[in-house]
C-alpha cells in the first residue's frame, strides 16, 4: 500500500509539532527540577545553620552549667573557711591554733589559684552589689554609708560576686 502525499505531509507536521511540544515539556520539566533543587539546597543550608546554632547553644549551656557547678563547689569550700576562721577566733591561745592557721592559709592559697579573692573590709564604702547589710550603726568620724564591721567576708570569682560580704554599715548620727 502506498501512502498519499497528503498523509505524508500531515505526518511531518505532526512529528514537528510533537518535537516542539516535547522540547517545551522538557524545558518545563527542567525548570521544575531546578526549582526543586534550589528549594532542597535552601532547606539543606537552613538545616546546616540550625545545626551550627544548636551546637553553639549546647556549648554555651554546657559552659554555663560547668561554671555553675564550679561556683557551687567553691561556695561549699567558703563555708569550711568560715568555720576555720570562727575556730581561730574562739580559742586564740589554744596550741592547735597554729596548725589551724596553716590549714586556713593553705585553703586560701587554693582558692586564690582558682581565681577567688576576698572582699569586704572595714572603711570601704557600702556597695549593695558586693555587700549585704546586716546592721546599721551610728558612727562618728567615718563617712555616711561606710562599712564599719565585717561579720562575714565576701568573695569574688574574677569579676563576679561569689558571695557578698555581710557587713555593718555606719551612718551619720543625724541620718539614723
How does the overall form come out from the CA principal axes? elongated
State the major sheet: 3 strands, antiparallel
So, the CATH homologous superfamily of the domain at 117-176? Head domain of nucleotide exchange factor GrpE
Which radius of gyration do the C-alpha atoms yield? Answer: 40 Å
CATH architecture of the domain at 117-176: Roll
**CATH top level assignment of the domain at 117-176:** Mainly Beta
Mean pLDDT level: 86
CATH topology of the domain at 117-176: Nucleotide Exchange Factor Grpe, Chain A, domain 2
Class derived from helix and strand content = alpha+beta
Strand content: 15-25%
> In whole angstroms, how far apart are the ends?
127 Å
Strand order of the largest sheet: 1-4-5
Contiguous helical run count: 2
Quick overview of this protein structure:
The chain is α+β, with helices and mostly antiparallel strands and 176 residues long.
